[in-house]
Design goal:
- With about 550 residues, the chain is an all-alpha fold.
- The model has no long low-confidence stretch (mean pLDDT about 85).
Length: about 550
């Protein structure tokens, strides 16, 4: 079924629901907006979210459009390899719960920069943390804003790049407002609403798929094998990345990039600071992990069901890397009943729409917070702390300063395949933020030079390797398919950049000398009980 052939009933109903959602979420943001001089309310929501609500907000922030659109599309087109990436996403949240959630909550106050300098103030580390936060989240924001423009034009039946441009600008401006007005509590409410709608829509679609195959999982796999056009190869590794020696290593590296990268993205880690205590963040993370585990099962069924019921050719024609697979399935699964088909399609489209918008709002908030708290308050104004009211104003202005370039880039790149941007964001998080956090939270002798080595070196390596990979040029699915500077036949930079990030962190610490390492060890011992024992923040 052609995804562009949306009937008038679906268009009008979708428009009404989209307008209502925008109005309700904007009202919620205004109602939960922080006072003009209360930083703790804006940055953390006073840490008043109960574990269940916090777990829902964490899961909602974690499930981005990259998961809903890109991962389902990859599962639909490549089978086993796509499922492996989906499982890596769930494993990533488990890693965050087991290793990082409590130490992050105990080490940081408002931003990732706080957690990185828990052993002593450092302007350079805060400056690097701000730069890496922007570098890791800006590509994801561009991808999701462009995706929101395509989704709305598709659902509402609009055509032309000028219309998409207007929609991207309008939606991006709304997200800046959500982040700047609502702060942490406002975005948390949006994420909870998004998660409930998305989970319900995904569950409905998965149940419809299983009903179509007679509730027989083996029949679903058999039909997916047939629909893929690849036979039994659909259930084996090799369709996403060629099963050569380098291809297998690249697939493993891609999975590790998702595991380390998704867990360490700044808009996800900032949610750790909203818990009142270490036990609360443990409970919140356990809820989030359970939700994510169930959601992975749902998207696996949806992805395989799209291939089984629609076929590979239909999915490939709908968008690059099968990015519209979930919408095509929602539109076609009950095609014999116009009323039910309209209801299912509108519900799924609404869930995807909310996912796109809420994810962008959370990322804008994380970037704005880092610019205001790390760069402005602790680098530019370190000698004379700004008034809370002034810092809060800067945070809200910073949301615009981050959102405006993201909107401009989304407009410029709206007609390109943007999977490379997702890969770049995850690669920077896995190669720079992951080693910096793991070393900084658990290695007593880790020095400032080692921290800068991981943050700066990991980021630069991830960017350079990604630029020369096949996701940016050299293939029809690349960001610049007409160019050919793909010197590295890799899909992600993880095989190279993740080891480089860890090695540079270790090397920088070793080169710092024993005296600095000993000073660092003494500082770490002073905060170690609070950092690792789950002490309550006063």
């Amino acid at each position: 079924m052609n995804p562009s052939a949306v009937d008038a009933g679906s268009q009008s109903l979708s428009f009404a629901i989209f307008a209502a959602l925008v109005s309700v979420t904007l009202l919620l943001c205004i109602m939960t907006s922080a006072e003009r001089d209360d930083l703790d309310e804006f940055y953390t929501g006073f840490r008043t979210l109960a574990p269940l609500r916090n777990g829902l907000a964490i899961a909602g922030d974690y499930i981005s459009a990259a998961t809903v659109l890109s991962t389902i599309g990859i599962i639909a087109l490549t089978g086993f390899d796509g499922l492996l990436l989906a499982l890596s996403t769930a494993l990533s949240l488990l890693l965050l719960m087991v290793l990082l959630a409590e130490p992050l909550r105990n080490a940081g106050r408002f931003t990732m920069g706080d957690a990185l300098v828990h052993g002593g103030a450092s302007r350079l580390v805060r400056l690097a943390a701000t730069a890496v936060t922007l570098a890791s989240l800006l590509p994801l924001m561009v991808f999701q804003l462009a995706g929101a423009g395509h989704l709305v034009t598709l659902v509402l039946g609009f055509e032309g790049s000028s219309v998409r441009t207007a929609i991207i600008v309008a939606l991006g401006t709304l997200m800046i407002g959500y982040a700047g007005i609502g702060g942490m509590k406002g975005t948390a409410l949006i994420h909870i609403i998004k998660l409930v709608v998305l989970f319900g829509a995904s569950l409905m679609l998965a149940l419809l798929v299983m009903d179509k195959v007679g509730w027989d999982p083996s029949r679903l796999v058999t039909l997916a094998d047939i629909g893929s056009g690849r036979g039994a190869a659909y259930a084996r590794s090799g369709l996403l990345i060629e099963p050569t020696a380098i291809g297998k290593a690249d697939l493993i590296a891609s999975s590790l990039t998702v595991v380390f990268g998704a867990a360490c993205l700044p808009h996800v880690t900032m949610r750790m600071y909203t818990a009142r205590s270490a036990p609360d963040i443990r409970r919140a993370m356990s809820y989030a992990v359970m939700i994510m585990a169930v959601f992975v099962v749902l998207i696996a069924v949806i992805g395989a069901g799209a291939t089984a019921l629609l076929g590979r050719e239909v999915l490939a024609a709908g968008g690059p890397q099968g990015s519209t697979a979930i919408l095509q399935l929602a539109q076609g699964i009950l095609a014999d009943s116009a009323a039910l088909s309209t209801f299912v399609f509108t519900t799924v489209a609404t869930a995807v729409f909310l996912t796109l918008l809420s994810s962008v709002a959370g990322m804008i908030l994380a970037c704005g917070n880092s610019l205001a708290h790390d760069l402005y308050a602790n680098v530019l104004k370190r000698s004379r702390k700004p008034l809370p009211r002034r810092e809060l104003l800067v945070a809200r202005l910073a949301a615009f300063a981050v959102g405006a370039p993201a909107i401009a880039l989304a407009v410029l790149m709206q007609d390109r395949a943007l999977r490379a941007l997702i890969i770049l964001s995850f690669s920077i998080a896995a190669s720079a933020i992951a080693p910096a956090l793991l070393y900084g939270l658990f290695w007593r002798r880790f020095t400032r030079l080692g921290m800068l080595g991981s943050l700066v070196g990991g980021t630069v390596t991830a960017v350079v390797v990604t630029v020369f990979s096949t996701t940016v040029s050299g293939t029809p699915e690349s960001l610049f398919p007409e160019q050919h500077f793909d010197r590295l036949q890799l899909t992600t930079s993880g095989m190279i950049s993740i080891p480089v990030g860890f090695v540079l962190g270790w090397l920088g610490t070793v080169l710092s000398g024993r005296r600095r390492q000993e000073r660092r060890r003494q500082r770490y011992r002073a905060v170690e009980p609070r950092l690792l024992a789950g002490a309550r923040r006063r």
